[in-house]
Structure formats: C-alpha cells, structure tokens
Amino acid sequence: MIKFLLEKLGVLSLTFLGVSILSFSLIRFVPGDPVLLLLGERGASPELYAKMKKDMGLDKPLVSQYGQFVGNVLQGDFGTSVVSKQPVTEEFLDRFPATLELGITALTFAIIFGIPFGIFAAIYRNKFPDYTIMGVALIGYSMPIFWWGLVLILIFSVTLGLTPVAGRLSVMFDIEHVTGFMLIDTLLSPEDKWPAFLDALKHLILPAIAMGTIPLAVIARMTRSSMLEVISEDYMRTAKAKGLSRFKVVAIHGLRNALIPVVTIIGLMFGSIITGAILTETIFSWPGIGKWMVASVTARDYPVIQGGILFIAGMIIIINLLIDVMYIVVNPKMRG
Amino acid sequence: MILEKEVLLKVENLNISFESMRGDLHAVRDLSFEVYPGETLGIVGESGCGKSITSLAIMDLLPATAKVDASHFYFKNQNLLTMNEKEKAKIRGSEIAMIFQDPMTSLNPSFTVGYQLMETIKLHFGGSKIQIKEKAIHLLTQVGIPSAETRLKSYPHQLSGGMSQRVMIAIAIACKPKLLIADEPTTALDVTIQAQILSLLNDLQKEYNMAIILITHDIAVVAQMAERILVMYSGECVEAGLIKEVINNRKHPYTEGLLASLPSSQNSRQHRAKLPSIPGLVPDLANRPSGCQFNPRCKYTANICKENNPDHISFDSNNHIVKCHTPLANQEAT
Ligand SMILES: Nc1ncnc2c1ncn2[C@@H]1O[C@H](COP(=O)(O)OP(=O)(O)OP(=O)(O)O)[C@@H](O)[C@H]1O
Ligand SMILES: [Mg+2]
Q1: pLDDT for A155
Q2: Which of A175, B103, B218, B234 qualifies as a cystine partner to B293, CB 3.0-4.6 A?
Q3: Is any Cβ of chain A less than 8 angstroms from the Cβ of B176?
Q4: What is the full DSSP assignment across A42-82?
C-alpha cells in the first residue's frame, strides 16, 4: 500500500510539471495582449506600455518568465491577479468551495439516480424498462450542457417560477462564510437557518442537474453493462442457490462487484466536473472557479490563468489519488 | 424395492429446451429418475449431455431462455413445477444444496469466506452474531479447513482450489440439506485433492444422512461413490441401475464405451491417453439423428436403430434399465 502510494506520488509530480508548462505556454500562444487589454487601446502611450510590461515581468524571455513562475509556486506564491490585484491563492480559495459544492451535488445527483437506473435496466435487460432507461440515457449523454441549462431555466425558473435564475443565495440573506459550502454555512448561521438553507438549495438544484446530467447517463450505462457482466457470473448462481431472494442476490452479491468499474469512472468524472463547471457556472452565474477562469481568459489575466490551472490540476490529482484508495477498499484483490 | 413414499426426489419425463435462433434446442428429453434419502446417485455422460442443466432445473437456476417441463417433478411431496419463487427460495440452500464445478468462480470475490458462509446460516437459521460465527467455525473445521477462525476473514482469491471447494461444501451443508447436488465437484481440482474431497463428501453424507446426486464424466468416481448410476447420452437416459449391476452387466454400447475408456487397476493413470475412447461426437442439438441418438457412433448399429428411438427395457428386478434395440448380452464380472 505504501509502495503503491509512493509510486503514485512520483507519477503525480511529473504530471504536475507537465501541467505547469502547458498552462504557462498555452495562454501565451493565445492572441491578445494583456497589457493592452489592461490599459485600453487608446490610453496606451509607448512609455506607459513599456513600463507596464516591465512591471508585469512580461519583458523578460519566456524561459526566465517560466523559471520565475515555478520558483514562486514552489515558495507557495501563485502570483497576483492583474485585474483585481488580489493574490491568486486567495481568489481561488474564495471560489473553489462554490465549485466543489456544485460538483459534489451534481455527482451525488448523478450517482443516486444513475446507479439504480443502471441496475434496473440490467435486471430488465432487453425489455421495456431497459429500452426506456437506455434511450433516455443516450439523450442525456448527448445533451449540450449550454442548451440544457437554458431549457432548465426556461422551464423551472421562467415558466414555473420555482427556482432562482442565478447565484448561490438571495441577497436578503447575510450568511457568514465558514466552510464555503452554502448548504452548511446557512445551517450554521444563527438566524434564518432554514429559509436560507432552502434558498441555497433552490439556487443549487438547477445547476446541479445541468451539470449532473451527462455523468448520470454515463453512470447508468456503465452500471448496466457492468451489472450484466456480473449477473452471469458463477457466484451469482451460488448466491441464488443459497436461497437468497432475487433482490438480495443482485443488491448484495451483484452490486459490490459491478461497482468496481463504476467507481473508477466516477473518479474520472470528478475531473471532468471542473470542465463542466466552466459552462454551467457561466449559464447560472455561479461564482465558482469555472466562471473565474472564463473571466480571466477574457481579460488575459496571466497569473490567474496559470495559477488557476495549477490549482485545478492539483485538485484533480488529489481526487484521483483518493479514488485509487477507494478502489482498493472496494476491491479486495487489490489489497493483496 | 424401496417404498414409493420414501422417495426424496422424483423426476418423470423431464424435458428441458432452450429458445435459440435456430429454433428450440431440446437439450434433455424424457429423463426420469428418483433419489432416495441418504443414497448417492451418480449421473455420468460426456460433456454437453445435459447433466448440469438437469441439476440446475431441480433448483430452478436455469436462465430464463430455458423451458422446463415434466409429467412429475416432486421434491418430497412438493411439486417443483408449480412452486412459487418464495417457496423455492425456502428449499434452496436449506433442503437442497448445490456445489459447482469451479469453486474458484463460485465464491464471490468481494466478500470474505466468513460472510458468505454466515449469510447462509443467518438466512435459514438466524441466531445471534456469536452463535452464527461459532457455527461457521464449526462447519469450516468439519470440512477440514485448518485455523478456521482466521480463515473466516480470508477472501476467496487467497484460497487454493481445494480450499475453495471445501468452503463451498461448508456453505452447502450448513443447513443439513436432505439432498446435495454435486456438479463435477472435483473436475477443477488435481488428483490428490480430488480424492480428499470425495472422501469428505462420503463422511458428511453418513453424518447427515443426506442424499447426493454426484454428477461427473468420470465413471470411475461414480463407481467408487455411488449406489446407483444413471448414464446420460445427449439428454436422454441410456442406462440406469445399481452401480454393480451396470458395471458388471453393462447393457448399453455407450456404457461399454465409457467403461472401456477407464484405466483398469493395472494401468496407471498415465496410460489413460492410450485407452480407447468412443469415436465420433455428441449430436448437435439442432440437428439430432433419427432413431437412437447413439446410432451414428455405435458399433452395433442395425437398421432399426436408425429408424426408431428405442424405449427403455427393464432387466432384472433391481430396476436396471437400458434404452437400446441391441442390448449387450449378459457377461460375467470383468
Ligand atoms: N443457456 C443455454 N442456452 C442454450 N443451450 C444451452 C444453455 N445451457 C446449456 N445448453 C445446452 O444444453 C446442453 C447440456 O448442457 P450441460 O451444461 O447440461 O452439459 P453437461 O452435461 O453439464 O456438460 P459438461 O460436462 O461440459 O458440464 C448442451 O448442449 C448445451 O449446449
Ligand atoms: Mg456441466
């Protein structure tokens, strides 16, 4: 186990290095001059432009810029936003809980519905419930998030008036940020506990559905095929021969084995959730890192982009590590 | 003759077919047999003759594509064909238990040996956690697993094939079943382990007075273990009777072929490859031969064999029956 973790760590540090190079160089290949954007085309006298460029460290050769960047990062300094003049770390930590809350809710939604649907489809293989579930899953899988998010807003917010259109919490509530998770913070607040919690939930629900739809479809399909494979295993026959009910055979003996590949997929999804966040957060004005990254690319805010991508990569890497550990927990063969 | 009311399992005209794209495949045809309490019935036959599906039909473990039909299909006085799912579940594991050919894949890889064993005990007996655990330890010890208590925490992949089969046996006998179906219990194991498992089954049978249906393609195993034998060919019973009777006084050419491919006591097992085997292949279920199913491979085929499928004829009073137009003449013990 320890050896396994050390090996993983080795691979991960290399990944990190790769990500840092990519995040650094990609943004510099994108056309658009951050200095010009900051100054505005008209306000830029050549002297001011040169001074600004020097202040931002953009006059040096790329290699030394990169060296500076890595050196700072190793000392825990991810730079300062050109636009807001805030440290990137602070900006990130401000926004990350929002994305995490949204992502966790979306994935929970996807898991809670995806796994039972997958099992159900497998049990009724090639019958009506199977065709229905898999048909809907295919539609869900091919759904463009942007369009789907707007449809959800149109139905639930505009037409039915059930949910708010944007943000995390209505302005009338003043909630102290403790954990950064709105659902928890509202419950921790001394007054307006439940109304605020409900309000936060209402804000969360549509973006979570929009973001969780594709993962739901993937999990349902994966669970189904994995379950079908497992159903024909010898040990399932043994379980039935013991006198266990059909439900117990599937729910106990089938599920544990069928979930092994599903857990892997869910882990991979956690990474893609952050990419999903870019679209979802933009549609629902969700103040998370997705929206933050989009804004910083538009403003060519180099430090934010570089630092933000590194943070995101770090999160994905940590999550993957956790998933690997979880995989060992569900699969006894991995324990050796 | 044993009294009719004592019969544990009575099967009459069992038919099993599978829906397939080539039409219905009639895999078992008009198979009849009985099992009495405490005895061992050996079922032998080549691969694909329908041994496994027959035993799975008894437990209703066949896939949904299988159609099972019989004129009489009773366990004790319960009709296996009309029972509902709940009643079947009650019998499974408690009154009829089963062990399978491949013990390594028959245990669930994700649960400990202890869980899988205690699950059965809990299901059919209940009891406190400690009682169940004690019973599990007792069972593992009984099937010859050393340091049973620590073994409870093992996962199947940590066990050898022989050990796994012992665990399977422990699960099967947990509820003292009246009938144990052993479908090729030793085929996947090596020879020395084979003998140990068979003698374990023998001991347990005596202790619990349980009937065993021992399925194998090795007639030598049946000769050693069973009182009665049923020889199957292509889903039909071709010969059945007391084991001594059938071995010493074989009537069916197929039985003769099976016995000829046995190593005699002088021949060691290594010589087996050189022993005569029955030429030809088992018939394709979708394209069965007319008349006797064995006629394309039989040395004694006559015209009538190609025209009519023979009925069972009975020899002597011990229910020695054979399905053949040209049964072999009486012979003295070999
Ligand atoms: N699910 C199924 N669908 C279609 N045909 C099947 C199915 N299961 C079994 N059969 C057919 O039924 C026949 C009997 O199979 P069975 O497994 O009972 O053979 P067996 O005597 O146990 O052989 P072996 O010694 O190889 O275990 C075979 O011809 C097989 O092809
Ligand atoms: Mg078989």
Answers
A1: 93
A2: B234
A3: no
A4: TT--HHHHHHHHHHTTTTS-HHHHHHHHHHHHHTT---B-T
* DSSP-based three-state secondary structure for B26: strand
Q: What pLDDT band is residue B211 in, cutting at 50, 70 and 90?
A: very high
Residue B292 domain flag: yes
Domain boundaries, chain A: 32-77, 88-335
| Token pair listed for B154 | 């093992």
pLDDT, residue B275, reads 57
The SS3 call for residue A15 is helix
Place of tokens 């089938």: A254
Q: Looking at the domain assignment, is residue B329 inside a domain?
A: yes
Q: Whose CA is nearest to atom 8 of ligand 1?
A: B53
- Distance between CA atoms of B301 and B281, rounded to whole angstroms? 16
B61 touches chain A (CB under 8 A): yes
Residue B51 Cα, ligand 1 centroid: separation in angstroms? 8
Closest residue to atom 4 of ligand 1, CA basis: B18
Cβ A238 vs Cβ B90: under 8 Å? no
Q: How many other CB atoms are found less than 10 A from the CB of residue B190?
A: 10
Q: How far apart are the first and last CA of chain B?
A: 26
Alpha carbon distance B179, B93 (integer Å): 10
What is residue B289's DSSP assignment? P
For residue A220, give both structure tokens: 């349902």
The answer to whether residue B271 is domain-embedded is: no
Domain containing residue B311? 242-264+280-334
How large is the average pLDDT for residues B198-218? 93
- The predicted model gives B58-77 an average pLDDT of 92
B266 pLDDT higher than 60: no
* Number of separate domains in chain B: 1
Considering only CA atoms, which residue is closest to atom 16 of ligand 1? B50
Residue A310, C-beta contacts closer than 8 angstroms, at least 6 positions apart: A16, A19, A20, A23, A73, A78
Cβ of residue B91 closer than 8 Å to a chain A Cβ: yes
- Domain annotation covers residue B224: no
Interchain CB contacts (distance < 8 Å): A and B: 69
* Cα–Cα dist B163/B189, whole Å: 10
Residue A218: name the closest of A149, A147, A141, A279 by CA. Answer: A141
Best residue for ligand 1 mutational test, from B53, B232, B237 (most atoms within 8 Å of Cβ): B53
Reference B114, options B160, B162, B147; nearest CA is B147
SS (H, E, C) A247-307: HHHHHHHHHHHHHHHHHHHHHHHHHHHHHHHHHHHHHCCCCCHHHHHHHHHHCCCHHHHHH
User: End-to-end alpha-carbon separation of chain A, Å?
Assistant: 9
Most B CBs within 10 A among A235, A259, A335, hence the mutation to make, goes to: A235
**What pLDDT, on a 0 to 100 scale, did the predictor assign at position B108?**
95
3-state class of B70 per DSSP?
Answer: coil
Q: Using CB atoms, which residue from B91, B105, B112 is nearest to A235?
A: B105
**Which of these ranges, A291-305, B1-15, B84-98, B219-233, has the smallest mean pLDDT?**
B1-15
Q: CATH number of the domain at A88-335, out of 3.30.70.3450, 1.10.3720.10, 1.10.10.10, 3.40.630.30?
A: 1.10.3720.10
Q: What is the four-CA torsion angle of B221, B106, B112, A261, rounded to 10 degrees?
A: 160
CA distance B317 to B1: 8
DSSP B239: E
